[in-house]
Design a protein that fits this description.
Elements (H helix, E strand, L loop, with lengths): L1 H35 L8 E9 L3 E5 L6 E4 L19 E8 L8 E3 H19 L2 E10 L2 E5 L3 E5 L18 E10 L4 E5 H19 L5 E10 L2 E5 L4 E5 L20 E10 L4 E5 L11 H4 L5 E10 L2 E6 L3 E6 L11 H4 L5 E10 L4 E5 H23 L4 H24 L13 E3 L5 E3 L15 H4 L1
Parallel strand pairs: 13-15
Antiparallel strand pairs: 1-2, 1-4, 2-3, 4-5, 6-7, 6-9, 7-8, 9-10, 11-12, 11-14, 12-13, 14-15, 16-17, 16-19, 17-18, 19-20, 21-22
């Protein structure tokens, strides 16, 4: 018994340290658990996870003992109409309006977090000179309004356009901008599209100049047209495409085949790196009609052509396939006298005969006069063939119709003379005789027997 008591008294001092150690571990674990909670302060922007959505708002786990609440009016506008701003499981940034305390739950705001994040982005872009993207929302006096997540003003002088009075067409478009001015206290942001475009164009220009070389095949965009050619943007560098390098055929004006904004392939013909001048060509990548001209045309062929130019020394015509040739003045139509300008006009269709073909010189000589002679010769040949089909041709065949016509006319005249009536004489037996000087006289018309010619005697008058 005594020994048992002594043993119990000996164990009691050993149990006290174990309880103290266990309490210490629990306290440490509690402290460690408490340390896992994120300390929040008003104005903090922290990440969180959406855990529940109801009519009162959205519960978000932000790493505190309890979830924070985002009221419905602090959610902000949804990305698309008809959809919720957030869903359960979404990771979002929230603004701490009121930390959790004795009074109650942590109050959060997504709308304010988005607003603060936008301001931070704008301020950072202003400091670093970064280029941002914004949507033009409306046209106002003096410029445009852009949506950066907050309202920004784009002055008309900083819009990339040639007509500052037609800014309405930019509404609804997305533009690249640089931040000119930021005033957080007045909530004022001024931006520039022109500076952003110029900066990006400068970067592209340098990249293009570093890689440009003669003989390259490049893609470009037609920026503007002139009477002598077109300026093509190769990527920050404008090259000149001369009107003579657009097509193998003659082009009167670049607008016949090109228009601003059109994407085309071109060849770099010349590149002056010091002057930064680029000459371009387009016809070099198109089929050359002169390479196979002998397969299509032969000397002596008679073909149809269209007049493209009238010059003092003749006319230029266009053959099918894009071949332009010349008809010298001496080879114009024999029926067209005087200057070529007075007898022929552009777009007239003519028949021509090929006289010479010189592909190496890219020249072809034609003749309208000889083509007409060829046509007349063919017509005569066809006529002779028709006559041969009727039989052998004699002199009588050629002039017979004329002789028969003359004989018929003579017979008709004789018949008309025979049908004329004979005039009766007074004696009834008179006859025609030839009088003096070859005149015809009737025997009854003699002066002796004519009563009208003999005056009455005095006796008979009595």
């Amino acid at each position: 018994m005594a020994s048992t008591g002594q043993e119990e008294r000996g164990r009691q001092p050993e149990q006290a340290p174990q309880e103290t150690c266990q309490t210490t571990i629990e306290e440490r674990q509690g402290q460690a658990y408490e340390a896992t909670f994120r300390p929040l302060s008003p104005g903090d922007i922290v990440p969180g996870t959406v855990v529940h959505i109801d009519e009162e708002g959205v519960l978000v786990d932000v790493g505190t003992k309890s979830e924070g609440l985002i009221p419905t009016d602090e959610l902000g506008e949804p990305a698309e109409k008809g959809q919720q701003s957030v869903s359960v499981g979404d990771r979002i940034d929230v603004y701490v309006v009121r930390p959790e305390g004795v009074a109650g739950q942590t109050l959060l705001s997504k709308k304010r977090a988005d607003y603060e994040r936008v301001w931070n982005r704008v301020i950072s872009a202003h400091e670093t000179g970064d280029v941002l993207t914004a949507m033009v929302t409306e046209r106002v006096k003096g410029g445009l309004v852009v949506d950066l997540g907050l309202r920004g003003f784009l002055p008309a002088s900083h819009v990339v356009t040639r007509n500052v009075f037609a800014l309405d067409r930019f509404v609804g478009q997305t533009v690249r901008i640089k931040i000119l001015e930021v005033d957080r206290a007045r909530k004022r942001v001024v931006v520039s599209q022109r500076l952003a475009v110029e900066e990006e164009r400068t970067k592209r220009r340098q990249t293009t100049l570093d890689s440009l070389a003669e003989g390259q095949l490049r893609k470009g965009i037609v920026r503007r047209l002139t009477d002598y050619g077109a300026f093509v943007d190769l990527g920050g560098v404008d090259g000149l495409l001369h009107v003579t390098e657009m097509e193998w055929i003659r082009v009167k004006h670049p607008s016949e085949i090109l228009k601003p904004g059109q994407k085309i392939d071109v060849v770099v013909l010349k590149f002056d790196r010091e002057q930064e001048r680029v000459s371009l060509g387009r016809k070099q990548i198109l089929p050359d009609p002169w390479q196979h001209v002998h397969e299509r045309y032969k000397v002596g062929d008679v073909v149809e052509a269209t007049i493209t130019r009238v010059v003092p020394f003749g006319v230029f015509v266009m053959l099918e396939g894009g071949i332009e040739a010349i008809v010298p003045t001496a080879e114009l139509s024999s029926e067209k006298t005087g200057r070529a300008q007075d007898s022929l006009a552009v777009d007239d269709k003519v028949r021509v005969k090929i006289l010479t073909i010189r592909p190496a010189e890219r020249r072809m000589t034609l003749s309208i006069r000889q083509a007409e002679h060829e046509a007349e010769k063919k017509e005569y040949t066809r006529y002779m063939e028709r006559q041969e089909q009727k039989g052998r041709i004699t002199l009588g065949d050629l002039v017979g119709d004329r002789l028969r016509g003359e004989t018929a006319a003579q017979s008709q005249a004789a018949a008309q003379e025979e049908q004329q009536p004979v005039l009766p004489t007074q004696s009834g037996s008179g006859s025609l005789s030839e009088g003096p000087e070859g005149e015809e006289w009737s025997s009854s018309d003699s002066p002796e027997e004519s009563p009208a010619e003999n005056p009455p005697s005095p006796d008979s008058s009595q």
